[in-house]
From TrEMBL:
Originating species: Saccharothrix hoggarensis
Domain of life, source organism: Bacteria
The keyword Electron transport belongs to this UniProt entry's keyword annotation: no
Domain ATPase BadF/BadG/BcrA/BcrD type stretches: 8-304
Protein name per the record: N-acetylglucosamine kinase
């Protein structure tokens, strides 16, 4: 069998899978629904991955009785603690997709996607917020990333909830005046936020805090001080995550990459990224702050290719080939 990598980037809102040969050729790409084990459980997560893996094998023309890959590289949201990684790895290994399997947090795939060697720091802000770092000697630093109970601040849901909270308090007099009030009222198509709150309370309107995150950034970009303070707080948190990670690994003075990813960070243009770059350079003047320019599943595949000892040309081929359209399933 030609050596192949089955790469999985499992996020909260979507899952991406790629089947790649050892030369970096993409044999199949599949997209599916979010299947974080924290949201749907390990069994359901692996069921989703199973369907996608079998579909990838079919598209690649593999025989039904043929192993899908030599190595599975699964980098998943919800794989935040060693026990979670072990449980997921055992569940994936039981499916028999490949001879070897590695399971890690999806932020490691982001780091590899944004760097030529997987060295540096990656901060992701999407549904939640997380940060990992890898030193040249292989040492790693990471956070539990379990939400408020592990000290986290940020993520699309958190920011959207904050926008609603600030707007409600502006309307009822407990908070500062802010353009978030009119923007959130318009978002819900209501006359007042009191009306929105009542609808949310009775379940007449679904509360999707992530949908309010773009509203927050739009109002901040227009100059609203209250909204801008929340954005500044996010910048501070991203800088803190990166700076602490660099310090713990002794990299504050090194010329390493700090990769930013996730829908919240990549969707704000330079509003967050430029501010993070400026503030982080105060303590780490040699770092290179960059926004990832390929999907994290590419990072998962590259980590798999690294594990197989693929030739350097495989990375170039993979990065180039992955610009092709991807079909959706599920």
């Amino acid at each position: 069998m030609t050596d192949r990598v089955l790469a999985i980037d499992g996020g909260n809102s979507k899952t991406a899978l790629a089947l790649v040969d050892v030369d970096g050729r993409v044999l199949a790409q599949v997209r599916g629904p979010g299947a974080s084990p924290q949201n749907v459980g390990v069994a359901r997560s692996v069921d989703v991955f199973e369907g996608m893996a079998r579909e990838a094998a079919r598209r690649a023309g593999l025989a039904a009785d043929e192993p899908i890959a030599t190595h599975t590289a699964a980098y998943l949201a919800g794989a935040d603690l060693p026990k979670e990684e072990d449980d997921l790895r055992a569940a994936i290994e039981a499916r028999g997709w490949s001879a070897t399997t590695v399971v890690g947090n999806d932020t490691f795939a982001l780091l590899r996607a944004g760097t030529p060697d997987g060295i540096g720091v990656a901060v992701v802000c999407g549904a939640g917020i997380n940060c990992v770092a890898v030193a040249p000697d292989g040492r790693t630093h990471r956070f539990p990333a379990l939400g408020r109970i592990s000290g986290d601040w940020g993520g699309g849901g958190h920011l959207g909830s904050e926008a609603l909270w600030l707007a409600v308090r502006a309307e009822d007099g407990r908070g500062e005046p802010t353009a978030l009030l009119d923007a959130v009222v318009a978002h819900y198509g209501a006359a007042t936020l009191a009306e929105v709150v009542e609808r949310l309370h009775f379940g007449e309107v679904e509360f999707d805090p992530h949908a309010l995150c773009p509203v927050l950034f739009e109002v901040a970009a227009a100059g609203d001080a209250v909204a801008r303070a929340v954005v500044d707080r996010l910048v501070e948190e991203v800088v803190l995550l990166a700076r602490v990670s660099l310090a713990r690994l002794g990299l504050l003075g090194e010329a390493v990459d700090v990769v930013l990813g996730g829908g919240v960070l990549t969707g704000t243009g330079g509003v967050v990224v430029d501010a993070v770059d400026a503030r982080l350079r105060v303590d780490a003047p040699a770092v290179r702050v960059r926004v990832v320019d390929v999907p994290p599943v590419v990072g998962a595949a590259l980590l798999g290719l690294d594990a197989l000892g693929a030739a350097p040309g495989a990375e170039v081929r993979l990065r180039t080939a992955y610009e092709a359209p991807v079909a959706a399933v599920g």
